[in-house]
Each structure stands twice: as structure tokens, then as C-alpha cells.
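Dataset card, provenance and construction

Sequences and ligand SMILES were collected as paired inputs. For each pair, a complete structure of the chain with the small molecule in place was predicted and serialized as C-alpha cells. The example below shows a pair involving nicotinamide-adenine-dinucleotide. Curators did not alter the output after generation; any descriptive sentences attached to a record were derived from the structure itself.
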Amino acid sequence: MKLRWGVIGAGGIADRRTIPGMMEAENAELVAVMEVEQSLADSIKEKYGAKAAYDNADDLLARDDIDAVYIASPVICHEEAAVKAAEAGKHILIEKPIALTSAKAQEIIDYCDKKGIKVGAGFMMRFAAYHQLLKGEIKKLGQLTNAAGQFTCWYPDIEGAWRQIKSQGGGGALMDMGVHLIDLIQYITGEKIVSVAALNDTMTFGYEVEDASAILGKLESGAYVNINSNFNIPDEAAKWRMEFYGTGGRIICDETIGQVEGGTVEALFTGEAKDYDAQQDKKSAGKTVYDVEFGNMYTKEIESFSDSVLNDKPLESPASEAIYVQKVIEAAYKSSEEKTFVDVI
Ligand SMILES: NC(=O)c1ccc[n+]([C@@H]2O[C@H](COP(=O)([O-])OP(=O)(O)OC[C@H]3O[C@@H](n4cnc5c(N)ncnc54)[C@H](O)[C@@H]3O)[C@@H](O)[C@H]2O)c1
């Protein structure tokens, strides 16, 4: 059995990654697409062999042969589309961040809960094979002491770009890229970030949202977190790293984050606590280099969501968890503005 999908805002990441991933999903079928310009909607319909193309969400949502929608419009448009989809009884996979604020996102979810609608968040990086593996391997680190992540791109001034306007995107590098790091660190460690101190600046470009963000935070267990998100580092220079350290070793992920599965993960586990070694000798240590089978994380995301709806299973990436990520971001903005440590509530 296949879940029948409609796509709202089909011309951006939907066309670049998610619809191609959906086409490979075993339990999903693309039925209709919507874009603001009918000509663009038509060309996407033709490209993927969908049944219909619309220039408005209402007509797409009126179809009886659509079970779920993927909302991939600019952040400012998410709320209206999600509420309409819930009214029409469609399950929803919504791109990150869910809404302009965590309060708005909570309203969407409360409304969907009342209607019995499942709402998933577009954290496709959760589905990368390395990240699935790390959820188990992280336990070998003993007491987790540090988790760090860095995600960057080059995003210069572009006239009218919604991501560069706070009222349309909700924020800059932290809201757009850091959102994935916060989610992945919480997902892999199984812990929430409970307090943060942050710096958010527009240090390179002319737009109003931050092009650089640094968060120092604490996880529930007390472990430290360090998250760097940048719009002002050239793509060629990007490393897209995550690092986890504990009393029993380290795990280093190089370029496992991003839109295409890849990169490397190397770990070193020291086992039981040892006596103090004045030599501080690290040469004899044995490394583990993992080998996984890469796939398409968008296909896995769509298959997982479809399976949850078709078989009434819990979502692997529920929107409720994305709301907490957004609360961490809001605490980071507050910290930066007030120059103080802020608890995430
Ligand atoms: N998970 C990922 O890999 C990933 C990557 C990039 C972006 N995103 C998220 O996806 C969303 C869209 O980002 P993007 O990069 O595709 O942006 P984009 O601007 O490239 O594309 C958005 C599309 O939505 C259309 N649109 C505009 N207003 C609309 C409306 N009212 N209703 C429906 N469609 C409308 C636009 O015409 C455009 O084609 C954002 O939430 C963003 O954070 C996710």
C-alpha cells in the first residue's frame, strides 16, 4: 500500500531533493504539486509524472486521492498551509523550521492533534545511515562530556531572498542551518539542550539576519555543547563536522551532515576508566572507522513518514521535537541580545 502525496511549494528543495527522493520510496506516490506560478507547477508535474498541478493549495487539498502533504514553502507560508491541510484531513510533513516562532508551531500542532493529524518535521538528516548508527555507538563513550557541531555555507546578499528577511524566515544561519545541528545532537545523544549562551551577528553581509552564530550550551546530563552555524564560510572550505567526547572515548563525524549521504565517522573507545598516565600517551590507541551503506535520506524520510501514517506508528521525526529545537534557537537569540545565559523553557 502507498501513501498518496501532494506537495505544497514544489519548486525549491522539493524539486531539488525531496520529490526525487519520494519517487524512489516504496510506499509513497506523488499525486499533485502546487506552486505559486502555474507554469512552474505544470513543469514539475511533467517532470515527475504527477496527476495534477495547481497554483493554489485549496484545489490540491480538495482532492480525495491525497492522504498527506509535504509543505516546503518559505517559513512564513508554513502556518497557513498546515492549518488548511489539517482542515482538509491531510497528514503533514513540514519543512524546518515549522513556523516563524515556537509558539506559532505549537498552535499548528495543537490544532492538528485535535483533528487527529500526524505532523512530522523535515529533519531528513536523522535518516542518514551514520546518524542512525551513532544513536547506539554514542553509549560507548561512557559519561558524555562534549558535543559539537558546525554547519556552514556561503550565502551573500540576494535582493528579496526570504531567508535574509527576519519576518519571512524567522532568523538567519542559526534558524536555517543550526536547526539541523541542534536536532542531530539531541537526536543522537537522546538528550535535550537545557541552557545556552550565544553570540549571533551579521559580521560579513548586509542583511538583517545573522550570518554567524555560536552557541555554548548544556545537555540534560551536564555535558557541554558547542554549535557553530555560518552563512559566511565558502562552500569549498566547509567541513560540516560533529564531534562527541566522553570519559570513554571520542566519535568524530566529517561531512556526514548535508543533503547527500556521505562523509566518514571515526571513533576511539578507551573502555573502563584508567589510572592517571603522566605520559599522556595516545599513540597506542586503536581507532574504529565505520563503514555504512549510504542511501537517499529523503527517500528514507518519506518512507518512514508514510509507514507511520499507513501503519499508525509513531513518527521518527515528530514536529513536537522540532518545536523544542526552535525553543533552543529562541533561547540563543535571547542570550545574544541580553548577554546572558538562558534556560530553554
Ligand atoms: N530539509 C532540507 O534539506 C531543506 C533544504 C532547504 C530548505 N529547506 C526548508 O524548506 C523550506 C523551503 O526552502 P527552499 O530552500 O526550498 O526555498 P525556495 O525559496 O527555494 O523554494 C520555496 C518554494 O515555495 C514557493 N512558494 C512561495 N510562496 C508560496 C506559498 N505561499 N505557497 C506555496 N509555495 C510557495 C516558491 O515559489 C518556491 O518555489 C524552508 O522551510 C527551508 O528551511 C529544507
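Derived descriptions for this record:
The longest helix spans residues 319-338.
The chain has a mean pLDDT of 96.
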